[in-house]
Design goal:
- The complex is a heterodimer of chains A (428) and B (174).
- Helix content of chain A is 32%, strand content 19%.
- In chain A, helix 6 (173-184) runs parallel beside helix 8 (206-214) and helix 12 crosses helix 14.
- Chain A has helices at 5-13, 37-46, 71-86, 101-107, 139-148, 173-184, 199-202, 206-214, 230-240, 247-254, 307-310, 313-323, 341-349, 352-359, 408-417; strands spanning 14-19, 22-26, 29-33, 58-61, 92-93, 116-119, 133-136, 150-154, 158-164, 193-197, 224-226, 267-272, 279-281, 289-291, 302-306, 333-337, 361-363, 384-387, 402-405.
- Chain A has a five-stranded parallel beta sheet with strand order 5-4-3-6-7. Chain A has a five-stranded parallel beta sheet with strand order 17-16-15-18-19. Chain A has a four-stranded parallel beta sheet with strand order 11-10-9-12.
- In chain A, strand 9, helix 6 and strand 10 form a beta-alpha-beta unit.
- Chain B has one domain: Aconitase, domain 4 (Alpha-Beta Barrel).
- Chain B has 174 residues and is α/β, with parallel strands linked by helices.
- Chain B has a seven-stranded mixed beta sheet with strand order 4-3-2-1-5-6-7.
- Classes of the chains: A alpha/beta (428), B alpha/beta (174).
Chain lengths: 428, 174
């Protein structure tokens, strides 16, 4: 019987089966940020187990509140900084060279096809875009990951979503994933891996695949996953060129982690996006989605472009295309947070940041900040934000605030009009 | 081992997320105890008031997909410091469920119909639930009403709650 990508990755990493449907797997990478790691460090110290399984497989960033906004967040950074130094963790990204975790770690080449990755962050499923098994975990799992390099998971049973198109002009990966979540529901992929396949995925950049996999968790999914292919190898080539004689060889090696034609899936869903429109969420759950055109009278107070979902260079370019030569509405505060320092530099070099500034946006440093209402764009009670982030939960961006999730193109068009609006890039 | 018997708090809604259980702005706290007053601060459930209804409760009974959203273990910790060590639901988000057992607490799934019956018979009453871990049975009591409900958890989950959690288990084994 054939196997899925996730099953093949589990087979290659299995250490133990403490119960029939529980697999303890070896980890290739453990990612850490300053919100969920300090309490793991604290507990390890208290237990007299202040050790790390392999300093080269642990990657650390300060991203959620950066720069620190108060004494408490400053302390979280300090704990992480000192711990990284103490254990010779070389890949530690502090302010000035940092970025949102799920944007900076792929950018550094830390995720490869066939890898197993955990992090104390639910959007870790993003990294499945590289053909990896990547899952968000709590602080205790993170702690054991740091100490022993293992983590326990149930069977990686998989939902395959075959996405056919072509994707209409002006409709993006964000709209695709919102449509998938709308179809599956917020509980539709719980305890399942979500494998994205089909011609629309084959044609997507790594940035778009990351946007897609990023929101697998919003349907309850353990990991998003895309088949590793030429696009994956091209993206990673600078980091892996010493390991392979040619790209073909790298591609062949990644081929070990492709689902078999006769693999067994929990469900297979055919998802046609050829007539998909730009989408927006309307409630407090990410599966509450509607076409933008049905929400066009809703005024917004803030537009936020950034996050691990849509803060990469591709996202900023699309928004800038919409904003070029225009001004945002007087009634809107525009905030853009390039996801990483590299994205920031690139956007500056390409003139993208100038377009944002000329349009009236505030350009912040890379940080998660506003997405979860911690800093750099928190909403006041009763305010509304069109946001390229991933969660519209009640209070998410600030107590009493309302969040509408949209693509960067829709966000930019909304900033100009002051109302939720389709961008001119969408011709439908 | 933690205490799995006590008074029941009914949360009649599905998809209660970890942002509602403990909002992100409190994730800057470096102690579990500091989370105590903010538990369920942002939840929107008709007739529910966290300040009034949480005190003195030890068990939550709720609907589907409890604990969805963020991976924050601050959610189980916020339960723990409010003396709630057992959540019974139709289903759980994966990370939340694992976090509960990793902390030596229990997240037990029961069929939707059983959960429905418990709500019908016991919600809006002062309800006490007794857990018999050896026999895997809950006994629910209120106003002379009485129900015995069997449950099952895997041996792995059982090992986590009896050994005190995943850190000691993993460190001794791997």
């Amino acid at each position: 019987m054939g196997k899925t990508i996730a099953e093949k990755i589990f087979d290659a990493h299995r250490v133990d089966n403490p119960a029939d449907d529980v697999h303890v797997i070896r980890l290739d990478a453990v990612f850490c940020h300053e919100i969920t790691t300090p309490l793991a460090i604290h507990d390890l110290v208290n237990r007299g187990k202040d050790r790390v399984f392999d300093p080269d497989k642990i990657k650390v960033v300060i991203d959620h509140v950066s720069p620190a906004k108060d004494s408490k967040t400053a302390m979280q950074g300090k704990i992480l900084r000192e711990w990284s130094r103490r254990h010779n963790i070389r890949d530690f990204f502090d302010i000035g060279r940092n970025g949102v975790c799920h944007a900076i770690f792929p950018e550094k080449g830390f995720v490869r096809p066939g890898f197993t990755v955990i992090m104390g962050d639910s959007h870790t499923c993003t990294h499945g875009a590289f053909g990896a098994f990547a899952a968000g975990v709590g602080t205790t799992d993170l702690e054991v990951g740091i100490l022993k390099g293992v983590c326990a998971f149930r069977d990686p049973s998989t939902i395959k979503i075959n996405i056919s198109g072509p994707l209409p002009e002006g409709v993006y990966a964000k709209d695709v994933i919102l449509s998938v979540i709308g179809r599956l529901g917020v509980n539709g992929a719980t305890n399942r891996v979500v494998e994205f396949t089909g011609p629309v995925i084959d044609a997507m950049s790594m940035e778009s695949r990351m946007t897609l996999c990023n929101m697998a968790i919003e349907a309850g999914g353990t990991s998003g996953i895309c088949s590793p292919d030429r696009v994956t190898i091209e993206y990673l080539w600078d980091f892996i060129k010493d390991e392979y004689a040619s790209k073909e060889e790298a591609l062949e090696d990644a081929g070990r982690f492709l689902s078999d034609a006769d693999a067994q899936y929990d469900r297979v869903i055919e998802h046609d996006v050829s007539s998909l429109e730009p989408l927006v969420t309307y409630g407090y759950k990410p599966d509450q989605v509607k076409p933008v055109r049905e929400m066009e009278s809703i005024p917004v107070d803030q537009v936020y472009i950034g996050s691990c979902t849509n803060g990469r260079i591709e996202d900023l370019r699309v928004a800038a295309q919409v904003l070029k030569g225009k001004k945002i509405s007087d009634s809107v505060r525009g905030v853009v947070s390039p996801a990483t320092t590299q994205v920031y530099r690139q956007a500056m070099a390409e003139g993208v940041l100038k377009i944002f500034l000329d349009a009236g946006f505030c350009v912040t440093n890379p940080t998660c900040g506003a997405c979860l209402g911690m800093s750099n764009g928190v909403l006041a009670e009763g305010e509304v934000c069109a946001s390229t982030t991933n969660r519209n939960f009640n209070g998410r961006m600030g107590k009493g605030g309302m969040v509408h999730l949209v693509s960067p193109a829709t966000a930019a068009a909304t900033a100009i009009s002051g109302f939720i609006t389709n961008s001119e890039l969408y011709k439908g | 081992m933690k205490n799995f018997s006590g008074n029941v708090l009914f949360l009649d809604g599905s998809d209660i997320n970890t942002d509602e259980i403990i909002p992100a702005k409190y994730l800057t706290e470096n102690s579990k105890q500091a989370l105590k007053p903010y538990f369920l601060e942002d939840i929107r459930l008709e007739g529910f008031n966290a300040r009034r209804d949480v005190e003195g409760k030890n068990i939550i009974v709720t609907r589907a997909n409890f604990g969805c959203g963020s991976s924050r273990e601050h959610a189980p910790w916020a339960l723990e410091v409010n003396n709630i060590h057992l959540v019974i639901a139709e289903s759980f988000a994966r990370i939340f469920r694992q976090n509960m057992f990793n902390c030596g607490m229990m997240a037990v799934e029961l069929p939707a119909r059983t959960i429905d019956d418990i709500f019908k018979d016991f919600a809006h009453r002062e309800t006490y639930l007794e857990t018999d871990l050896d026999k895997s049975v809950f006994t629910i009591t209120a106003d002379g009403r009485h129900a015995k409900i069997p449950f099952s958890i895997s041996n792995f989950d059982r090992a986590l709650i009896t050994t005190g959690g995943w850190v000691d288990y993993a460190d001794s084994k791997y």
